[in-house]
Amino acid sequence: MNKQRREQIEEIRTKIEELHGDLESLRDEEQDYIDNMPENLQQSEKGEIAEQAVSNLEDAISSLEESEASLEEASQ
């Protein structure tokens, strides 16, 4: 792989790292929201939706981590 393509991959990887951080912040905010809900609301549909959002964000974070690792390997 030439230098130009490696640099492009590094730029993309950097953007993914930023998105990764943004998603982690959103996940943490949503988890704080759940943690600060009264217990009866945590067990309600609203709480379940928030829990599902956290789970989906964690899945997205994992996918980004895999993408970062693949791009790192590709640029070597």
Q: What is the number of strand segments? A: 0
Task: Report the average pLDDT across residues.
Answer: 95
| Measured distance between first and last alpha carbons | 8 Å
What does the overall shape look like? rod-shaped
Largest sheet: none
Question: Could you describe the 3D structure shown?
Answer:
This protein has 3 helices and no strands. The protein is an all-alpha fold. It has one domain (3-74). α1 runs antiparallel to α3. The longest helix has 33 residues, at 3-35. It is rod-shaped and about 60 Å long. The mean pLDDT is 95.
Task: Give the helices and strands, then pairings.
Elements: H1 3-35, H2 39-42, H3 45-74
Helix pairs in contact: 1-3
List keywords for this structure.
mainly alpha; single chain; 76 residues
How would you summarize this macromolecular structure in one to three sentences?
This protein has 76 residues and is mostly helical. The protein is 88% helix and 0% strand. The chain has one domain.
